Amino acid sequence: MVTAHTPGYLYSQGELQELAGAKDVRALLRWVQELTNAHLVKLAQQGSAVYFGAVTLTDARVMRTLTPDEALVYDQIVEAGRNGIWTKTLHARTNLHHNVVARCLRQLEALRHIKPVKAVTHPTRKIYMVAGLEPSLELSGGPWFTDAEIDTEFIESLTNVICRFVDARSYPPPLDGPSSNSNGSSGGGTSELRVYPATYGDLPTVPAIAEFVKTSGVANVDLTLADIRTLCEVCVYDNRLEKVDNGGLGYKATLKTHLHNMGAEVEPTAADLVDFEYW
């Protein structure tokens, strides 16, 4: 029994005949011709065999308004999906002259059927995709890229927010009042600080950090757990966070990060560490 498949699936003649319930090939071809004329079915050749693919109603409506050349170009762009298609590949697949392809692209873009996109791996290439689609991760580079360039400000902003969130859950609140360092200087010292014991296990995990980032609204794009983990690892590399495994992998702010967030102006000494109080 042949059933309907996901968009993009190509049916063989036998599958299509069984799916359509056609009594013979002649009846099948008559139906296929009607659907092809209405741009609801497209033909594809693989070797010597011919296959049939369904066309969405949206794409069919667009195709009916286009010239044959524009329809040919648009069909290839639709086929490329979220990966987009390079203009050089369009020339090869359509076998149209460069000027004809360029004219079709200008018209399709003017009608807002397609849009140009940049690929992080090939920023100089002219790539087009259907206007209503979002570029694939391979094409866009993910949330860290804007217009094919890495968004350092966005990354820095997110890592700062994450470090402050983790820091607030890595140390107990400091004791009130001024403090003095072991070297006699005052202000920004560490003797007023307290730390949790090494067995403390309520440190922020990746899911907890991701939920905070999501609810805080600091990111204007959806970030996956893998994205958040990447940001945490960047902070670990920069010595702002450290990984702690107390029955479940969590993250803890380093002492350097904690002191920075408190406005401390000095680095802790070994003697300072002795003065820490355990909560």
TrEMBL record:
It is found in: Nucleus. Its main location: nucleus. Keywords: DNA-directed RNA polymerase, Nucleus, Transcription. GO terms for cellular component: cytoplasm; nucleoplasm; RNA polymerase III complex. Transmembrane segments: none annotated. Pfam families: RNA_pol_Rpc34. The keyword Transcription applies. GO terms for biological process: transcription by RNA polymerase III. PANTHER family: RNA POLYMERASE III DNA DIRECTED , 39KD SUBUNIT-RELATED (PTHR12780). DNA-dependent RNA polymerase catalyzes the transcription of DNA into RNA using the four ribonucleoside triphosphates as substrates. Specific peripheric component of RNA polymerase III which synthesizes small RNAs, such as 5S rRNA and tRNAs. Belongs to the eukaryotic RPC34/RPC39 RNA polymerase subunit family. This is DNA-directed RNA polymerase III subunit RPC6. It comes from Geotrichum candidum (Oospora lactis). The lineage of its organism: Eukaryota, Fungi, Dikarya, Ascomycota, Saccharomycotina.
